[in-house]
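Whether sequence alone determines local backbone shape is best considered at the level of individual chains. When preparing material for the folding task, we compiled for one chain both its residues and its backbone structure tokens. No coordinates are needed to read the tokens, only the vocabulary itself. For completeness, the protein is quoted in full, as a sequence line and a line of structure tokens:
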Amino acid sequence: MAEATKAKEVKARKVADPLEASIEPATQQMQARAIELDIETVFDRAVTMKPCAIGMQGICCKICAMGPCRLPLPKGGIQGEDTRKGICGATANTIAARNWVRMIAGGAAAHSDHGRGVAETFLAAARKQAPDYSVKDPARLIQIAPYFDVATTVEEDGVTKDRDIDEIALEVAETAIREWGKPELTAKYLKRAPKPLQEKWKKQGVEPRAVDREIVECMHRTLMGVDQDYKNLMKQGARTALADGWCGSMIGTDLQDVMFGSPSPLQAESNLGVMKEDHVNIIVHGHEPLLSEMIIAAAQSQEMIDYAVEKGAKGIQLAGICCTANEMLQRHGVPPAGNFLQQEFAIITGACEAMVVDVQCIMQNLANVAKCFHTKLITTHKIAKMEQDNVIHIEFNEHYASEDARRIVKMAIDNYENRGAEVMIPRHKGTQVAGFGVESIKYHLGGSFRGNWYTLNDNIINGRIRGVAGVVGCNNARTKHNEEHITLIKELLKNDVLVVVTGCSAIAAGVHGLLTPESAAVYCGPGLAEVCETVGIPPVLHVGSCVDNSRILLALTEMVNAGGLGDDISDLPGAGSAPEWMSEKAIAIGQYFVSSGVYTVFGYHLPIEGAPVFKDHLYKDMEEMYGGMWDCEPDPIKHAHLMIAHIDKKRKALGIDKARDRVLMDMADRQALGIE
């Protein structure tokens, strides 16, 4: 009788159809298992909770206690003057712009605070106060030091000598940390952008000063009764986004490379199927590699492996979720277990001994799911705790990093014996090649002696490659899991567009088999397929986590510097996309790409439809200001063809809209292009 009652309750509860929730088989299998076990998931909640129609349009203001003020569009649209106003008189354009700018501030704060944490740890390491961290890539440190105005050589008795690497590290660390809060001048990394782009920023008055300064000013300007001009508000929005992309995030990526090593291509598996029934399974979820690097070292130590065997396991299987997964993958080959919408399912397998989380994109419902299994949910960051009583908090301290990591791994091993009998690990997993960075792409384009970004440019000029596209961003439970990412990427490849991916989009591409060189023959047009086969690269290049979108900015800059495709990023045949965006971080990323000259298309929707004038400012005015602009299209095929049309427009402007025969260039030809 009790079982019949429970079955009736489950049937009454709204649940998501597994086949409608995701295109990915392991996720479908786990959603079906969740329904069977009466465990609510993110997909179920998306079915139950409908979005606010006015909030979706971006015209609900709750900044002060006189509101919330809701300014719905008239049924027939705006006829003549738009007279909608909040209680204070704020127009729809002001409200939509305030909401937009606050999203930029939130996203920039998240990414740049990640970068700050890395910079603080690097400073502690440089001061010899964090013994578990060191300079693992001195060449990378020497490469970035000049951008911080730090000398790498010294003159002694008329002889130029290399400076001590520890001295360089300390000076870089002390200079870098000031980029978050210095009182004057502009961000040092702006000088890495193409000169015409730097001039645009100066002309528009959007050169960022310091990360914290720009975020605080965003919050001040958007307070009730401060900035009430949508154009002026967006000026600060652009400045803040640039502070993220060309400062906080970029410094974070660079210093991670210095401390943990620059990524290089490697092969690994991907998806929930990487978990092992006879191993201790530890899932690390979040965004900062400071902890995960230490957990990798602990989990791979002979001491911990022996301890796991002593407890009855055959070993330790480490895997990641979200951008921590990408960080562990690109440097160590640790496999991702899934992206954002798969996090609950790693626990629902019944085989997860511990899920270790830090910051960003952590669903609070993980605690509720963990109650149904033996899984220990461990929070590790001082700014990210959960209220549920079954959550364990072990605050990570960089000064005792290895000790904290060993404690966590030991706790997971001790939990192995508490695993229940009902374990269901999906068999689905993919193979991928990941770990591409600016330097490794350059190497693959020509080897140790001939590596040069002009190889890519040349194949764009001769028409084998139509253009380049960055596909990035989150998953969103309001869209079918992974469908927009994968459909969009396949359509771009079919039309000879080389794709670079980061974040959850990168994990989706790996799960669905798009990150192998062999996939070029299956999914690409003839030109791109030929290039990929010749060079030996996948047609979709995994360049890292969300914070590593700064790598894409630098890759585009390298293309400009290589010559033949214009003088600025906005001249390149390229476009950006976030087809399943969810987080405020995506808006910050989108804005710094737009402000850097990239045509950027989002899927699902953008919360600006209720303010048509403000929408036009983002969709039209910004192209004149920065060379890049926003666009939105939920249909992935139409989305892809908006990007392709823009790429074709840029090809025509460059005079390369018709395919050309390949010409073998001699040294004189190369010198004419300014290539050494």
The domain at 432-672 is CATH 3.40.50.2030 (Rossmann fold). The CA atoms of residues 257 and 605 lie 35 Å apart. The chain has three domains: 92-260, 272-418, 432-672.
